[in-house]
Amino acid sequence: MKFQLFILLSALGTVTGQLDKLAKEAGLLYFGTAVDNPSLNNQNYLRIARDPAEFGSLTPANGQKWSNTQPSQGRFTYGSGDAIANIARQTGQQLRCHTLVWYNQLPGWVSSVYNRDQMQQIITAHIQNVAGHYKGRCYAWDVVNEAVEDDGRYRNNPMYRAMGVDYITHSFKVAQQTDPAARLYYNDFNIERCCNAKINATIAMIRTVKAAGAPVHGIGMQGHSRVGMSPSKREMKETMARFSELVDEVAFTEVDIRHTKLPIGAAERKQQGRDYMEVVGACLEMPKCVGITVWDFTDQYSWIPQQYPGEGEACLWDRNYNQKPAYQSIVALLQSAASAGLRTSATPAPVAAVMTVDEWAATVTAAA
Ligand code: XIL
């Protein structure tokens, strides 16, 4: 009977997603996904990406990057970014905007600038134009992306070579002048597992630029990791506790958890479910964590196989749009957090009331 009802509702197209709906019920602001332009002509993809109950927030995976928005000096192009921003406008989904100043996907004409004043003018013009174009539409902007190396040094990128750490301060100031309503984030990878050299350096960097007047509201932990080797909830909570002393909010901004060896079996799928659950659990249990964005939701469009040949299947849906155990694990956790009132009631429910990774794993075994 239930099954027939499901078929009927599916046929009517009324079965909607649940990640964002449940995330909100559990007290988060959103559950979101990155969306890249090549996927926009795929109806199977769009049906999920445009469903606000599934994803309350969209992030252009590439469309707002420097190489797309100002490929040559003074020529601004917004087609790719707008294609995604316009979906969010139609559906009422929120936008997480990404990213203004980054050493990657940076056009050659910027990397060949060595003069401090010129670089400052170039950054100013870029942010004023791009953040100006999207003014009022971005819940948050990743203002500066990946400015610190794993060993804790500042990344020696063209902006740093021209201006030193002032490029970071300057970028945040211009972003705030341009779009005062946007939450301004510093965003990076490998800053999830407490507390490595990069995390310590990131904290020192945020202190430095805030002392110099940079309005940094949030820290984004990208959250790219590997099945079976990803950071534990405890480690991520420790990091977020330290970041929470510096900024108003934190978020997981680009989560994907890839298998390092393919093909995989049921045990690896289940482990991936556990690993995703640790991320979502860490966010739920930290008051300043506002939401989670996955770096695309289907293996069909994941960036992983290109970036890490031989690795992949990192997303919540497979390439045929079947939900994986990882999807189910997040749903189960969000449901139990919502009904336990973990973040919504005045007195948060004890963490023990929320489903544990092991309890979820037991349900998978039982069902298998
Ligand atoms: C990736 C995109 O997903 C790819 O399509 C592109 O080729 C390279 O960039 N950290 C970031 C994201 O901040 O912008 C990157 O996105 C993934 C790593």
From TrEMBL:
InterPro entries hit by this protein: GH (IPR017853), GH10 (IPR044846), GH10_dom (IPR001000)
Domain GH10: 13-333
Compartments, record wording: Secreted
Keywords from the named record: Carbohydrate metabolism, Glycosidase, Hydrolase, Polysaccharide degradation, Secreted, Signal, Xylan degradation
Enzyme Commission (EC) number: 3.2.1.8
UniProt keyword Membrane present: no
Gene3D superfamilies the UniProt entry points to: Glycosidases
Gene Ontology annotations for the cellular component aspect, listed alphabetically: extracellular region
Keyword Secreted annotated: yes
Catalytic activities: Endohydrolysis of (1->4)-beta-D-xylosidic linkages in xylans
Pathway: Glycan degradation; xylan degradation
GO biological process: xylan catabolic process
Highest taxon of source: Eukaryota
Signal peptide coordinates: 1-17
Principal location listed in the UniProt entry: secreted
SUPFAM superfamilies membership: (Trans)glycosidases
Gene Ontology MF terms in the entry: endo-1,4-beta-xylanase activity
Family under the similarity heading: Belongs to the glycosyl hydrolase 10 (cellulase F) family.
Name of this chain's protein: Beta-xylanase
